[in-house]
Each structure stands twice: as structure tokens, then as C-alpha cells.
Structure to design on (136 residues):
């Protein structure tokens, strides 16, 4: 009787360990995604002088487990919704787990209160930062 009890406990422990191992292996789902972010966000311009050139860079990282081509658009939109046009538009092909750093620059000559500098990827990701003119 005593040995049956220990056998039942041993079999139960083995079953529990197998179930835990199986759940651990089966539950390992990997998410595929694209990263889009500013390379140096603390250095982004926030207050600008009209007619001056400003630079920034952003990164695209491919984590889709396959080579992917990304098309991106960079543009400025004033707070009233007026779009001043594209700063840049291009495509880049990235292998899985690879990253590209893209540098852009802009000059605004017309007066405005505030605007967004926007980066749109064709895969659906969007990032932006706000700018305003300096008040001297």
C-alpha cells in the first residue's frame, strides 16, 4: 500500500512536469514587428528659426523574420492641417533583424505657430515630433 502511494505521487509529478514543459514549448510565440523610432530623441529640434536648416535621424528595424521593403514618407504638417509638402520619400529593403538609420533635414521659411514633423511607413507605423518658431 505504501509503495502504491509513492508510485502514484511519482507518476503525478512526472505528468505535471511534462505538462509544464509542453506548455512552455507550445506557448513560445514570437511576434513579428517593425520598429520605427527617432535615433536621438532628446536632440530633436522643438523651437526653430525660420530659414535655418535642421537635421534629425530615425531608424527602421525589421523584425519580421523575412526580408522586407519599406517605403517611408517624411513631411511637415502645420497645426491648422496645412501640409507644406514632403521632405523626403524613399524605399529601403532590410533583411530580418537588420536596421537602417535615415537622416533628414528641413528648412521652413514661412511663419507658423506649431507644426508636426511626421514619418510614415507603408507598414502602418508613424512617429512625429512638434516644432514651433522661436519667439525672439
Amino acid at each position: 500500500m505504501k509503495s502504491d502511494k509513492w508510485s502514484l505521487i511519482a507518476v503525478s509529478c512526472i505528468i505535471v512536469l511534462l505538462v509544464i514543459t509542453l506548455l512552455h514549448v507550445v506557448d513560445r510565440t514570437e511576434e513579428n514587428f517593425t520598429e520605427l523610432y527617432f535615433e536621438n530623441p532628446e536632440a530633436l529640434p522643438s523651437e526653430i528659426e525660420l530659414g535655418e536648416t535642421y537635421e534629425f535621424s530615425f531608424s527602421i528595424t525589421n523584425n519580421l523574420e523575412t526580408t522586407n521593403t519599406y517605403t517611408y514618407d517624411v513631411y511637415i504638417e502645420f497645426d491648422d492641417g496645412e501640409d507644406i509638402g514632403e521632405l523626403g520619400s524613399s524605399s529601403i529593403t532590410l533583411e530580418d533583424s537588420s536596421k537602417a538609420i535615415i537622416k533628414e533635414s528641413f528648412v521652413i521659411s514661412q511663419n507658423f505657430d506649431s507644426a508636426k514633423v511626421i514619418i510614415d511607413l507603408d507598414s502602418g507605423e508613424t512617429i512625429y515630433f512638434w516644432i514651433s518658431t522661436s519667439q525672439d
User: Anything to note?
Assistant: Residues 73 and 89 are 4 Å apart (CA to CA). The longest strand covers residues 83-94. The beta strands are 33-38, 47-48, 53-63, 68-78, 83-94, 99-107, 114-121, 126-133.
